[in-house]
Amino acid sequence: NPEGKNLYQLAGGNLQGNRWGLKGTEDLGGGLKAIFQLENGFDINTGTLGQGGRMFGRQAYVGLTHQAYGTVTLGRQYDPLVDLVQPLTADNYFGSTFTTPGDVDNNDNSSRTNSAVKYTSPTWSGFQFEGMYAFGGVAGQTGSQQTWSGAATYGTGPFSVAAGYIRMNNANSGVIRPNNSFTSTSDGTIDSIVNGAYATAKSIGIASVAVQFVTGPFTASARYSNAQYKPDGASTFASTERYNVAGGYLGYQVTPAALLGLGYTYTHGSGDTSASYNQVSLGGDYNLSKRTDLYLVGAWQRASGTQRNPRSSPPQQLQPAVASVADYGFTGDSRTQEIVSLGIRHKF
Q1: Is the pTM of this model over 0.90?
Q2: What is the pLDDT of residue 52?
Q3: For the segment 80-125, what is each residue's pLDDT rounded down to a tens digit?
Q4: What separation in angstroms does the CA of 149 have from each of 77, 85, 318?
Q5: CA nearest neighbour of 114 among 177, 70, 49, 56
Q6: Using CA atoms in the order 300, 189, 206, 54, what is the torsion angle rounded to 10 degrees?
Q7: pLDDT tens per residue, range 224-271
Q8: What stretches of 170-257 adopt beta strand conformation (E)?
Q9: Is 102 helix (H, G, I), strand (E, B) or coil?
Q10: What are phi and psi of 166, to 5 degrees?
Q11: For the chain, is the Cβ count within 10 Å smaller at the N or the C terminus?
């Protein structure tokens, strides 16, 4: 914190957020099935609901699926980049500690989308695609609060590649939006001081691509994304903020039960500000059984340049960039920050 004191705490959900839910399938005949999923997130230390206190804030959808024609789902869902691009990145293996500062590119799936219609194709010779549109629900203003996204992936043998784009629109407004007011069908990706000053953006657009190669016990992947936070007359900033993110991951399956991982993420903000964040992450995961594992993960980050401070007085002032590892949102006043997490995960 600003006084230079470290934080020690019992925290829930590092490799994966805690969750509970229901899902089901009903055979309707002719290869057609009805499906649904209701899933919430919660804090295991207090029992309180996550995702803004929603009963089923992680996912809540119903749909139809057919092996030959694909799947259509309706409700609160992940976007196509989360479904197809994120699985090829370090976040898929070691979670938040390996993701982008502030999750500015939604690599850690901070955002979910309400009122969404999503189509997922079958897989043809390793190729699959998804498309999604979410209705803004504002009479006479079709573009207000709407979200649309598309992504595709191709995998053959040890090699896989995926790419996609998402556009999230904020609510229309004739007056200055208050801070932290991203009001859209999507939750947005405002997770820390890194991008907290851009909650009043008119839109957030994210393009991502990732590649992965698996050989023997090694998994190597690389990714790139470009996130743009664009203002309008109701925003509290005037110039588009762009984040270019490049990351690499190397995983080593030491034994069938033990996995080690090394990740590096470089994030550069430009346009409204000029800041860079270098982050190195390390992780180890050991399976005690098919359903229970122990993990130890950590990261070090260094920030440089300037960033806009959403909590300054007067608000939105430029300041020297401070570090904030991944999307945990811990903010001090230092250019460097370290975080280490030791935990146990159980699936049932």
Answers
A1: yes
A2: 86
A3: 999 999 999 999 999 999 999 999 999 999 999 999 999 999 999 9
A4: 12, 12, 32
A5: 56
A6: 130
A7: 999 999 999 888 889 999 999 999 999 999 999 999 999 999 999 999
A8: 203-215, 218-230, 241-255
A9: helix
A10: -135, 140
A11: C
CA distances from 28 to 31, 32, 212, 245, 311 (A): 7, 5, 37, 45, 54
What is the signed CA dihedral for 45, 46, 48, 51, rounded to 10 degrees? Answer: -40
| Block residue for tokens 């019992």 | 10
Give the torsion through C-alpha atoms of 37, 43, 44, 47, to 10 deg: -90
Question: CB neighbours of 9 closer than 8 A, spacing ≥ 6?
Answer: none
CB neighbour list of residue 284: distance below 8 Å, 6 or more residues apart: 258, 259, 260, 261, 295, 296, 297
Residue count of the chain: 348
Token match 């206190």: residue? 53
Which among 268, 191, 274 has a CA at the least distance from the CA of 227? 268
What token pair was written down for 171?
């609510």
Q: Which helix (H) or strand (E) holds 91?
A: helix 91-94
Q: Of all helices (H) and strands (E), which one includes residue 82?
A: helix 80-84
The rounded distance, in Å, linking the Cα atoms of 217 and 209 is 24
- 280 vs 95, 249, 300, 338, CA distance in Å? 14, 10, 5, 10
Tokens 């903020």: give the residue: 241
Query: Which segments within 31-126 are labelled E, that is strand?
Result: 32-41, 59-66, 70-77, 113-120
Q: How far apart are CA 62 and CA 51, in angstroms?
A: 19
Residue 233, token pair as written in the block: 């007359």
Q: What would the two tokens of residue 312 be?
A: 């300054």
Q: What is the spatial distance between Cα 77 and Cα 87, in angstroms, rounded to a whole number?
A: 16
Q: Could you tell me which residues are beta bridge partners of residue 208?
A: 164, 225
Angle at 9 between CA 282 and CA 288, to 5 degrees: 55
Work out the pLDDT band at 21, boundaries 50, 70, 90. very high
What amino acid is encoded at 304 in this protein?
S
